[in-house]
Amino acid sequence: MRHIFFSFLLLFWLISVPRNTLAAEYKPESSQSPSSALLSASKSFDKSARLLVQQQINLIARIEQALSQPDPNRMRAVRGQLTIQVKAVEGFLKYQYNSPKALCTPTDSSTRLPLPENLTVEQIQIYCSLYASSSQLSNLAPLLDRLLSRRGELALVRELPLVSGERQSDPVLSIALTQYPNLGKPAIPFSTWEAIPPSPPQIIGRTAKTAIADYVPPRQPAIAPPPEALTTIETAKQLLSAAQAAFSPDIKFNDPRETFTKLDRFAYDIDPQEPQIYAKFLTSPNTGIFRVLPHTAYNRPLNTLQNRLQPSISDRYPFPSLGEAKGGFTPSLALMMVGDNFGLKQQGLNYNFMVNVGDIPLEKLDASLKNVSPQTREFFLNYQPPKQLQALQVEQRRFLSQKNQNLNHQIILADASSELNRTYLVRSLQFQLPEIIVSGQPLTPIQRRHLDQLQQMHSSDIIFAFRPVRRRSDGSYTVLWRILNQLPAPQIEDLENYIKF
Q1: Last residue of a domain, one of 254, 279, 313
Q2: How does pLDDT run across 149-176, given as a tens digit for each residue?
Q3: What is the pLDDT of residues 8-65, one digit of tens each?
Q4: Do 387 and 273 fall into the same domain?
Q5: Does residue 245 sit in the same domain as residue 279?
Q6: Rg (Cα) of the chain, in Å, rounded?
Q7: How far apart are alpha carbons 150 and 157 in whole angstroms?
């Protein structure tokens, strides 16, 4: 009886309530005004188009990186991402207008299709620019397939398991492991077994023993992106720029290349405000500011692939120059961190010695070194390098092996322990031997006619000081440096003895 009574009350309420009251509580979508529907569609178009444009910008940046990297996993990843992106753009375009090619292909006025009423002029520009850019990128598919097969000659390209994972049989474990696809992990390279680091010390005039008999280090690949790929990518970027320009000015797009450049500078370069902080010091001649990186930053890890055509860290952020270039020779401040010590990068016959002179401002040091101890001043100003090549090599090894100059209980080494706000005095001797001596090859008849020119040697002998003013968490330092004295260039008097006729 109670249920029947409540049902009767509900029926009586429905009959007594006016129809316009119920209609006001719910408005179907078809009853919305045309302007509201167009505004909602426009917002939906802008949101989807903005997402696709940003994804395409990211994809182009990843393709550019994969073209210059030896890792096949990167190439395989961007190949799949290209297919997904092209299909996503194609679906979006056909949802907005059935025939993108007919709408975006230039024709004469007599055969031109009427513009869609649901799109504004700016949206049509975005539509057609996105269509043209995606069409350009789709042309890269066969090229990426070909390059992937070439990358397979450098590293192991395994078949990917299913997305849900595949069971791998194991002779020991009772339960087989599940392997999932992972293209973010570098592929295993072929023939990159390296027992010792490259660039052994240079020894001239005699045969030196090697760490491993008949050891030849593997040569890193040289990868140059195909010109047709670069042309296609550049065209796609220009078309995509036209789409970005059609968006509202308050909409910003992220460029991964700009982000990479900023992160690269943050990792290896000085901060932009540091030159402003020390602007007064840097106005003086023969001064500069420099970030001293750990030596591992300049060395490629062993048993890894690297494109030898790509600029290294020392190419992107070169060491400061300590003089004018002469005949391809430029003395440099090749300072880096070796553990907790400051040291100069050793190349060829170059060698140096340095000492911590304490908390002496760089401005108070001059060519006479009058503000340092008499023993240090005498050694730095009066030291004479050998003039024979063999003796010079012995002298270099003596400093590098810490068989040092012991001067009145003060040790003079090729490196020094790092301390903030301390000044380090350095004397650096740098040499550029003639190529005919470094190579050790016999002279050709044509070379014998120009023997005097081929024997020309360039060198420098510089005393400078540097002062670390900031230490970062990665172990690098920001240092101020100043050239104090430019000594006469050292000479080697017996170079003719090492020429093979």
Answers
A1: 254
A2: 999 888 887 777 666 666 666 666 666 6
A3: 343 334 334 343 433 333 333 444 455 555 556 678 899 999 999 999 999 999 999 9
A4: yes
A5: no
A6: 35
A7: 11
